[in-house]
Design brief:
The complex is a heterodimer of chains A (360) and B (321). Helices cover 40% and strands 10% of the residues of chain A. Chain A is an alpha/beta fold and 360 residues long. In chain A, the strands form 2 sheets. Chain A has a 6-stranded parallel β-sheet, sandwiched between helices. In chain A, strands 5-6 form a two-stranded antiparallel sheet. Chain B has 2 domains: 179 residues, Rossmann fold (3-Layer(aba) Sandwich); 126 residues, Rossmann fold, CATH 3.40.50.920. In chain B, the strands form 3 sheets. A 7-stranded mixed β-sheet of chain B has the order 3-2-4-5-7-6-12, sandwiched between helices. In chain B, strands 9-11-10-13-14 form a 5-stranded mixed β-sheet, sandwiched between helices. In chain B, α1 runs parallel beside α6. The chains are: A alpha/beta (360), B alpha/beta (321). Bound molecules: thiamine diphosphate and magnesium ion (MG). Thiamine diphosphate binds next to β5 of chain A.
Chain lengths: 360, 321
């Protein structure tokens, strides 16, 4: 499987073209979603330090390109199982900063209404299934989404993300085997951020998981996970193949967890040089340089993003805490309406073009 | 009304519901051409094809996990575990993914998981278990366990139509031993208890195969009038029906085939102690399988599963109290 993407070492030159399918607006949008992700998570970390975010706080600092780039390649009718370093995917699908910050603070207006915390959420109305803690359970759920698409002969694709650490558990195997066997339209994005909590790669596996893919009968592709355009392009190609009946793809996004596992973690087990080396490959710096070269007004974009986060913060802080009297509600559903995953935003220009072509 | 075995009633429920609703499909190990380890889906693949009668790899986590995915985009999977025991390998997907989805995210998971359960025929430690209490303890799942052919069909139809994950315990020992009249067509049986026999002196609470044990044990008990309540549904537990029966008879004997500690019957006992105390005229008694793996060899197995004699003895003691 010859998927052309940037190499794993991040040698992609600023301004270089990783995908021919992106307009300048698309490339700016990729930057915008990454800035939103980083900005919201930084804001949430401040709120955490102020005691306004209960529990713990997890972020995806340095990994923004992975979820933003890959979610950007997904169509409105596709479905996503989003993991804990992937805030960008929620943003691409159209979840607002206010509802995300409300989620972190356990507010009634947060995505789960305070029933689950931090990044454990998914707005099903925009096609996202929120993760459970058990890793990588969502690989099987994504496989099931794809199984339904195939059974109904729909041209749709499922995608999910998961970390290097979770490839050691059995559900990784069950999902890879199942998806390969049934040739399902699903994309597995392995975010190799060098660590599973404190455990480095060399204590996790003897063979890199990307190489296991062919053992399950489908391609594994290594991608520069710090380049949103490379992530986009690899995902776009995987999706195209999936929709055409070519089966699953495993994308291994090479990246680095630049913060501790969660807010409490000082990362004393990570060599300083490793962090420094990856800081040079910061995905936002790279995309910013790229679109600046192409004439985009990045300063205005940054202002717009900051304003959106400021407004979202105010809105979230004004949200009520949930009513304790509702704590035992909503264990079982007994309504009449069919509640299933809905369509989300799909901002890539290619979908708009496709829609025009279809006469929509 | 046709007469069917318990097993035929289960097949009939699925076959008719699949004809009626194209969203419904069955998935499991060896359920296609082979028709399932117990032949519950015999002939299904010919009628519905291999997509809707899906032979899966040997992967219980995969079965439940992919069913969840299919359900949240609008299908209604019925998962067959080859034996209830193997649900332990799919436990996480059921308890953590399916069970908590609606509470956490407002997204219901319409799946049914069929568990051929129970002992009595030398299945040994891994083909005889009654794991219902695991799922009673985990929020977000309904748990039902029919004892008759009529209820097997009606409860299964209700389970498939219920918007929530439903664990459906079908007792293997009843598959071909129990027969009864089963209404034609599709009907739903509510997740409530059923009075299997009216009585005034004592109530025996049971579900699944133990309903038959309880009926036989108390058929002729020195002329005593013994009520037998078939719980049918463990989640939700029909608390009002349980308390109403205690109010009437003042004596409660609870029979579980499952291991005793924290079994379904323990919850019934706790309920009666808490809210039926004033009505009691004797201790709440239990008969259950001791907390051991189910042994293989017939004399060992018969020594631990609740028998007609053990239930008789416990009922007599309680009547004399
Ligand atoms: C099955 C399971 N065991 C343990 C944990 C606790 N835990 C949470 S995240 C984590 C590390 C995950 O590492 P990785 O999969 O590489 O993802 P990353 O956090 O690096 O993105 C662990 C051990 C868990 N969530 N799930
Ligand atoms: Mg990791």
């Amino acid at each position: 499987m010859a998927t052309k993407t940037a190499g794993p070492e991040g040698e992609h030159a600023p301004g270089g073209v990783a995908s021919e399918h992106l307009t300048l607006d698309d490339r700016v949008a990729l930057l915008k979603y990454m800035l939103l992700m980083r900005g919201i998570e930084e804001r949430a970390m401040n709120l955490y330090r102020q005691g306004k975010v209960p529990g713990s706080f997890y972020d995806g600092y340095g990994q923004e390109a992975v979820s933003v780039g890959s979610a950007f390649a997904m169509a409105a009718e596709d479905r996503l199982c989003v993991l804990h370093r992937d805030l960008g995917a929620h943003l691409v699908r159209g979840v607002t900063p206010a509802r995300i910050l409300g989620q972190y603070m356990g507010r009634d207006g947060g995505v789960t209404g305070g029933r689950d915390g931090n990044i454990h959420f998914g707005d099903f109305r925009v096609g996202c299934v929120g993760m459970v803690s058990m890793l990588p359970d969502m690989m099987l759920v994504a496989t099931g989404l794809a199984m339904a698409f195939k059974m109904r002969r729909e041209a749709r694709c499922a995608i999910t993300w998961f970390g290097d650490g979770s490839t050691s558990r059995g559900d990784f195997h069950e999902a890879m085997n199942w998806a390969g066997l049934q040739r399902l339209p699903v994309i597995f994005v392995l975010e190799n951020n060098q660590y599973a909590y404190s455990t480095p790669l060399d204590q996790q596996f003897a063979v890199d998981p990307v190489e296991r893919a062919q053992g399950y009968g489908f391609p594994g592709v290594r991608v520069d996970g710090n380049d949103p355009e490379a992530m986009f392009e690899a995902t776009r190609e995987a999706r195209e193949r999936a929709i055409a009946g070519g089966g699953p793809t495993l994308l291994e996004a090479m990246t680095m967890r630049m913060h501790g596992h969660a807010a409490h973690d000082d990362m004393k087990y990570v060599p300083k040089e490793q962090v420094e080396e990856w800081r040079q490959k910061d995905p936002i710096d790279r995309q910013e340089a790229r679109v600046r070269d192409l004439g985009a007004d990045v300063d205005a974009l940054r202002e717009e993003v900051t304003a959106a986060i400021d407004a979202g913060t105010q809105e979230a802080l004004a949200m009520a805490m949930p009513d304790p009297a509702t704590a035992t509600d909503r264990v079982f559903y007994d309504g009449e309406e069919d509640l299933v995953l809905g369509d989300g935003a799909a901002p890539w220009s290619g979908f708009a073009v496709g829609a025009r072509d279809r006469g929509a | 009304m046709p007469t069917m075995t318990y097993l035929q009633a289960i097949s009939d429920a699925m076959r008719q519901e699949m004809r009626h609703d194209e969203r419904v499909f069955v998935m499991g190990e060896d359920i296609g051409v082979f028709g399932g380890a117990f032949k519950v889906t015999d002939g299904f693949i010919e009628e519905f094809g291999p997509d809707r009668v899906m032979d899966t790899p040997l992967a219980e986590s995969g079965i439940i996990g992919t069913a969840v995915g299919a359900a949240v985009v609008g299908l209604r999977p019925i998962c067959e575990m080859q034996f209830a025991d193997f649900i332990s390998c799919g436990f996480d997907q059921l308890v953590n993914v399916a069970g908590k989805m609606y509470y956490r995210q407002g997204l219901p998971v319409n799946i049914t998981v069929r568990l051929p359960s129970g002992g009595g025929f030398s299945g040994g430690p891994y083909h005889s278990q009654n794991p219902e209490a695991w799922f009673m303890h985990a929020p977000g799942m309904k748990v039902v366990a029919p004892s008759t052919a009529e209820d097997a069909k009606g409860l299964l139809v209700s389970a498939v139509r219920d918007r929530n994950p439903v664990v459906f315990l079908e007792h293997k020992h009843l598959y071909r031993r129990v027969k009864g009249e089963v209404p034609d067509g599709l009907y739903e049986t509510p997740f409530t208890a059923r009075v299997a026999r009216e009585g005034t002196d004592l109530t025996v609470f049971a579900y699944g195969a133990m309903v038959h044990t309880a009926m036989e044990a108390t058929e002729d008990l020195d002329g005593a009038s013994v009520e037998v309540v078939d719980l049918r549904s463990l989640v939700p537990l029909d608390e009002e029906a349980i308390l109403a029966s205690v109010r009437k008879t003042s004596k409660a004997l609870i029979v579980d085939e499952a291991n005793e500690t924290c079994a379904a019957g323990a919850q019934v006992a706790a309920l009666i102690a808490d809210r039926g105390f004033e009505d009691l005229d004797g201790p709440v008694r239990r008969v259950a399988t001791p907390d051991i793996p189910i042994p293989f060899s017939p004399p060992l197995e018969q020594a631990v599963l609740p028998s007609v004699d053990r239930v008789k003895e416990a009922a007599r003691e309680l009547l004399e109290y």
